[in-house]
Amino acid sequence: MSETKIADYRLLERIGSGTYAIVYRAMHKTTQEILAVKVMAKSKPSNSAMDNVISEISLLKKLKHRHIVEMRDFLWDDENIYILMEYCNAGNLSSYIKQNRTLDEGTCKRFLQQLALALRYMRQHDVSHLDLKPANLLLTKVSGTYTLKVGDFGFAQRLKPYQENTAVKGSPLYMAPEILLKTSYGPAADLWSVGVILYECLFGKAPYSSKNMHELAERIHRNDPITIPSRPAITAECRQLLTSLLQRDPAQRITFEQFFDDPFLDLAHMACEENLEKAIALINRAIEREQRQELGAAYRAYCQGLQYFVPITRAESDPAKRQLLRQRVVTYLNRAEALKQQIYAHSQTMVREPEQQPTTSLNVRPPDAKLPAISAASCSSGGSGGNEPRNTSQEPGLAELALEHANVARGLQIGHEADKDASENRLDVALDRYTTALGLLIPVLQTDIAIGQKKLLRQRIEHWMEDAEHIKSIRSAQIMQEMESTQTNRYGCVVQ
């Protein structure tokens, strides 16, 4: 490649450097497009470093994803190799953490969702990064909205799910123990790094922060336990994910599949245009079901819609649109709560006068106020409902199973207590009890029990899992409302 090709760009200020490369902000002289240019002198890199450069170029040519830094081109002349990449105008996650000291859980979650999307795409192509750290997670900022992008694939390589390697790669502070201890490792090494990144975002420092490399190595070799600070407080779901990621033994570490399905991460409901459309469809279905007096199905559809609307509202950077979305969330939350009370009142009436009540539907007149159908334009310019309420009395088949299994008896008792708590609006207590009940009941499905009993137990578990999800959606909307109204929302950035 002739020298005149790189001469099309004017190198501006230096924005980063490494052992063998310097990164500049650059501008195309004709189009005025701003890019980042990594410049590596041919005379400096060792053979292994040059292999890394070739590997990085090869991978970046094929990896095209919204949350991976895009390589636009690569050039060379007699002296240097140039990798031209999209420019990320908001620095990196490391500098962002230092600027804010710690990040609130909501911001951590949204950054983690973006990193997870990139990792899911990379795993689909059998690519392991092997140098994940905040400094390699670049940020762009447009109209107040931050987007995270994975960069620096110099150590990356193709590793299939059960393929292993022994070459030491990565940055020690974020390096999985199996790499630092020079044992074989596989793709799960990236998940340890994700755990360290999440820990640092939440608490302002890495779990094995040390004064020097020797101290770090000692802590790893001694297998010092990782303690999760009590402040700032984090939710149980966040703590569970953090603990699952930071397992020293890769065999005990959470898998990629489990990570992508993790309830704290909640990729299914993250803010995006597709999920806004789902939210709108669910709310319109809820309104339709309510008008048809199918209140159980309407309640479930409102809850499912809130699961999408809350993260979309939190991620909105435009104050006016955010306020509009928040008002809608409050409206749907109030609607769901009103329906829940009607359903409970009706169920109590059925208990008192069973012979006079229908058993297949709720013929309860809905509230007088009407909700118009909504559209994406009415929310921002930028599933189906469940069945009718269930009889929560203990089915005969489960009663027999409870006599044989103490965990079933205890789980059913706690689950029915959760039903009562939920109906009386003690949502946090109900959610805790549903979680406990499910923890007792789910393992029983793996035991040798009668097919009919297993079917009944599975149905009961699915019902309570659904109820727990509905409570989560209600509580997330309530918490958002409380935080906004008291002006204690500390979200320092908006990420999508």
TrEMBL record:
Which InterPro entries does the record cross-reference, listed alphabetically?
Answer: Atg1-like (IPR045269), Kinase-like_dom_sf (IPR011009), MIT_dom (IPR007330), MIT_dom_sf (IPR036181), Prot_kinase_dom (IPR000719), Protein_kinase_ATP_BS (IPR017441), Ser/Thr_kinase_AS (IPR008271)
Gene3D superfamilies noted in UniProt: Phosphorylase Kinase, domain 1, Phosphotransferase system, lactose/cellobiose-type IIA subunit, Transferase(Phosphotransferase) domain 1
Q: Which GO terms describe its biological process?
A: autophagosome assembly; autophagy of mitochondrion; piecemeal microautophagy of the nucleus; regulation of autophagy; response to starvation; reticulophagy
* Signal sequence region: none
Identify one Gene Ontology CC term for this UniProt entry: phagophore assembly site membrane
Q: Does the keyword Transferase apply?
A: yes
Pfam family membership, one = Pkinase
List residues binding ATP: 38
Q: What are the residue boundaries of the Protein kinase domain, all occurrences included?
A: 9-265
Q: Where in the cell is it found?
A: Cytoplasm
The text of the family note is:
Belongs to the protein kinase superfamily.
Q: GO MF terms on file? A: ATP binding; protein serine/threonine kinase activity
What are the UniProt keywords, alphabetically? ATP-binding, Autophagy, Cytoplasm, Kinase, Nucleotide-binding, Repeat, Serine/threonine-protein kinase, Transferase
Protein's organism? Anopheles maculatus
- Indicate the quaternary assembly: Homodimer.
Protein name per the record: Serine/threonine-protein kinase ULK3
Keyword Kinase among UniProt keywords:
yes
PROSITE patterns in the record: PROTEIN_KINASE_ATP, PROTEIN_KINASE_DOM, PROTEIN_KINASE_ST
- In residue numbers, the region (Disordered) covers 373-395
* Top EC class for this record: transferase
Q: What is its EC number?
A: 2.7.11.1
Which catalysed reactions does the entry list for this protein?
L-threonyl-[protein] + ATP = O-phospho-L-threonyl-[protein] + ADP + H(+); L-seryl-[protein] + ATP = O-phospho-L-seryl-[protein] + ADP + H(+)
Superkingdom of the source species: Eukaryota
